[in-house]
Amino acid sequence: MDDIYIDLAKKYGTPLYAYNLNMIKTQIENFLKYFKSDLFDTEISYASKALSIKEIIKVVKSYNLSLDVVSLGECYTAIEAGFNPKNIYFHGNNKTIEEIDYLLKNNVGCVVVDSLDDLANIDMEAKKLKKGINVLVRLNLGIDAHTHKYINTSYIDSKFGIIYKCDEFYSIMDLLYKSKNLKFIGFHSHIGSQIFDLKAYESEIDKFIDVIKDYKEKLVINLGGGFGCRYTLEDSPAPIPVVMKNIITYTENKLKENDLEIAKLMIEPGRSIVCEAGSTIYTIGNIKKTPNRLYYFVDGGMADNIRPALYQAKYEAFIPGAEGKEEVTIAGKCCESGDILIDKVKLPLAKKGDLLVVRSTGAYGYSMASNYNKLLKPAVVFYDLENHTDKLVVERETLKHLLDGEK
Ligand code: LLP
């Protein structure tokens, strides 16, 4: 198994984002198999912010998932990858007029509205362009999913969503019902990310049950994403089949108990589709001993993985083909003390030139990568262990890319 990392590093160089395509497919198949009900339709929308490149969009499309995008750039990437715009949900708390025009002109299927201002802009542009579009209204259901505060979206003053039955909510619904171009189809909420506690989704469903009691029409209910993943051995997320069965059964029971019906239940997983399938392969360069630490410096760092610095995210690493017990710190090459990828990890005594693989970097690694210190973004490779193939899906940046647009 470790050989694959050695082979890919030889072929494509490091640092390298390497995705196991078989794992991605298995995960999508798990979602599709267990997120199903006899009572209502179900739909899975891949949250492309986790990894927004044409190759993953094509994979998602081959399984007929729909797609969540939050910007012109993500939407453009999807359309360029051949994704049917009808199956795109366009999110965002501050959509620009340019974005709204783009999504309307390209016949994107649904827009998720975040405020009255947002809706007013969409209504105005839809009228101007004589376009119709479906609308989901994003609610802030006030659920405290125990996760890092930067990725918890449903606390009371969150910038996302609208509180049910507040004044602004009523104005939104008024405008929606009056609009000739916009069609209200239901509600959306996303309660946070990297959620382990299934009770958080149950609370979300409870809140939605209270909401839909107020509507005669059968609504679409979108629960958002956030399903937890394993970064280190300390993480033990419930497997996706268990999570999906729980959500479906809970929703079915609550609907029956309350004698209610919905048109469709949706989820928007991002991380859980790509996280564990992705690893970053680095080469160890210099090694340094300080009074209390042994540092392995790698040829990437916070520019290709900002998550440890931003969220204190924990990762595991290994050296292909070797096991060991030295406690080491993995630091990147950026000119920044916070550029520590892993604070403490047990590894063998390494030497310059050894490879080091950090696991579970597949979500929000490449998509949040930057050119800080003018580092080049790594290449991205998808490998298929069943068919013994690999494919370069994003080229490594070159120095020339760095000056693109500079005068
Ligand atoms: N739907 C909406 C409306 C979202 O805002 C998000 C994530 C998702 C779905 C997908 O959530 P997921 O299944 O990936 O957890 N950069 C952070 C994560 C930010 C998540 C933002 N929204 C990180 O690296 O942990």
Shape: globular
At CATH level 2, the architecture of the largest domain is: Alpha-Beta Barrel
Structural class label? alpha/beta
Q: Could you name the CATH topology of the largest domain?
A: TIM Barrel
User: What is the residue-mean pLDDT, rounded to a whole number?
Assistant: 96
Termini separation (Å)? 46 Å
Supply the number of structural domains.
2
Largest sheet: 9 strands, mixed
Radius of gyration, in angstroms, nearest whole number: 22 Å
Oligomeric state of the chains in view: single chain
Please, could you describe this protein's structure?
The chain folds into 2 domains: 2-16 and 277-402, Lyase, Ornithine Decarboxylase, Chain A, domain 1 (Beta Barrel); 35-274, TIM Barrel (Alpha-Beta Barrel). It is built from 12 helices and 18 strands. The mean pLDDT is 96. The chain is of the alpha/beta class and 407 residues long. The chain has helices at 2-12, 21-34, 54-62, 72-80, 97-105, 116-129, 167-178, 198-212, 240-258, 271-274, 307-311, 399-403; strands at residues 16-20, 41-47, 66-69, 88-90, 110-113, 133-140, 162-163, 182-188, 220-222, 264-267, 278-290, 293-298, 317-318, 326-331, 340-347, 355-358, 379-384, 389-394. The radius of gyration is 22 Å and the shape is globular. Strand 17 and strand 18 form a beta hairpin. Ligand LLP is lined by residues 47, 49-50, 68, 91, 151, 190, 193-194, 224-227, 268-272, 307, 311, 363-364, 368.
Describe, in short, the structure shown:
By secondary structure, this protein is of the alpha/beta class. The chain contains 12 helices and 18 strands.
